[in-house]
């Protein structure tokens, strides 16, 4: 793939920006978006930044019928001295390509698209909010656009990147949540698409989500699809437990998403000499440790919440109350460190951040 | 849901109709389509038949991000005396609602939409091709249309029905196919979405499909997602085996699609007093029966092909050649009977067909 010239068409009707402390997640979008097309003969071509506007697609466009689509989610943060930082964006574009491979979508040139993204953010820099806990959410996604009902990979695709200023994920700061261990519905299984960020993985969880909400839980903890025994991930987050001084997170087995926050936390814990292990962990093992009083902390990790402490787990009528519903010391330290690096308040010794010039 | 008045807007630019014996599957669409919208406050509303035209959606419309969508596939056939027949359309709309339930999409009024569909087909009646083996393929589908990146059920949806004249599924008539038994990738698992006709189930099979094609197979036979042991279904078809005089098809276990052709075949076999059983069948059991010379026929069933005889199965380097690559007697009889009923040549004793007036 050759470096292609980026076309830029500026919007003539700039929208008013929302107050940065009162923004519902993912409903407000900036003035411009990035678009790039793929056709078999041309490869990925015509990268462009254009005014944010509706898409026009044939009703028989493949995206509407067979779900050939992948996406990513990352954030731009406003740091000291009005610098704008991205957190490990290279990891997101690598993962986008891994997801695409699973869905038979042609890969993009990661560096090229990352350059175009920084250009887009630089144009939209005034949209990056500054209140603590806020950021500019970045959603790259690829959709199959060929007009055909044949069950086969599309011959054409569209990559788009849209930007949405988002408020603090937690109203009222970091707050431990209650989570239901799902025992009927399955998110993913070996050989399936669990490791890919693809649309179908998300709506397939809505029924379990509704069941969890109904019983007063904030989210779902998924077990493996084979035996409904091993812990996989929470809603759209990875999960960690601190058990008897050791941090445990389920190992990547093909059905768990390889989270970038997850990876960063493992790296931080290793640097801090806190024991951390990626391995299979069954909900029974966790419950046993809980009964023995060994479960010290639990937290979910992901781009949206960074760290989401878990205060309570409900499993087949059994309750595990973790750390007395309080934020654990380690959870708080990880949250402070990662958000500190993301916003330039903590020194970035890992070269995780990329400044948008 | 109350019966709502159907609005009809006729197209002013009618397209030329293709030659009915040379139509690639799912690429040509008729002049009109059916559309209906859902909003939480209004329910399903504004049913209308309008000129076939592109859809305009916000790039943040939920369909592009979380795959909340379901679809159906059925056909209209041109019978003797230019009558137009649908084959068990009530089953398709029942299944659409079952799929919707799994994907947290609000149900439609099945009878109402079926009435609107017959109205649409009656307007497009000249598009129903007449050559043997051809038909008008009908694709109802529902997509989530809310503009939001929140991982939650959409507050608005669009139901559309588009029509596509299709040629004979088999060039050169009924022809046994070679199929690869997939041992790595998984289509579906208990607790997942396998029983629903939803987009994500299809693109997740493209890698296995490509692998099968590469090794000279026409399709994929999926095994269960838990043990990779039990036979589930073929590509987008259900599967049947005639073993030692008895017809066996995998039982519906939550991860297999409840095919309407499958159901009709079971009913026909029962009427004909041919032993038929729905049960778990492992690929090992099948192979053992094959080695003993007991596998007499194999065939896939589905709306597209009706009956697709299987001449060869490839499983981990082992080959099962079925009925010497010839069409089996039972496969042929089932094909002739079902296509005969669909096209009005065979008496419809089951009241399976619905005439479009």
From TrEMBL, chains A, B:
Pfam families: Aminotran_4
Source species, domain of life: Bacteria
SUPFAM superfamilies named among the record's database cross-references: D-aminoacid aminotransferase-like PLP-dependent enzymes
Pathway: Amino-acid biosynthesis; L-valine biosynthesis; L-valine from pyruvate: step 4/4; Amino-acid biosynthesis; L-leucine biosynthesis; L-leucine from 3-methyl-2-oxobutanoate: step 4/4; Amino-acid biosynthesis; L-isoleucine biosynthesis; L-isoleucine from 2-oxobutanoate: step 4/4
Top enzyme class: transferase
Keywords, alphabetical: Amino-acid biosynthesis, Aminotransferase, Branched-chain amino acid biosynthesis, Pyridoxal phosphate, Transferase
PROSITE patterns for this protein: AA_TRANSFER_CLASS_4
Catalyses which reaction(s): L-valine + 2-oxoglutarate = 3-methyl-2-oxobutanoate + L-glutamate; L-leucine + 2-oxoglutarate = 4-methyl-2-oxopentanoate + L-glutamate; L-isoleucine + 2-oxoglutarate = (S)-3-methyl-2-oxopentanoate + L-glutamate
Cofactor requirements of the protein: pyridoxal 5'-phosphate
MF (Gene Ontology): branched-chain-amino-acid transaminase activity
EC number: 2.6.1.42
Family assignment from sequence similarity: Belongs to the class-IV pyridoxal-phosphate-dependent aminotransferase family.
Descriptive protein name: Branched-chain-amino-acid aminotransferase
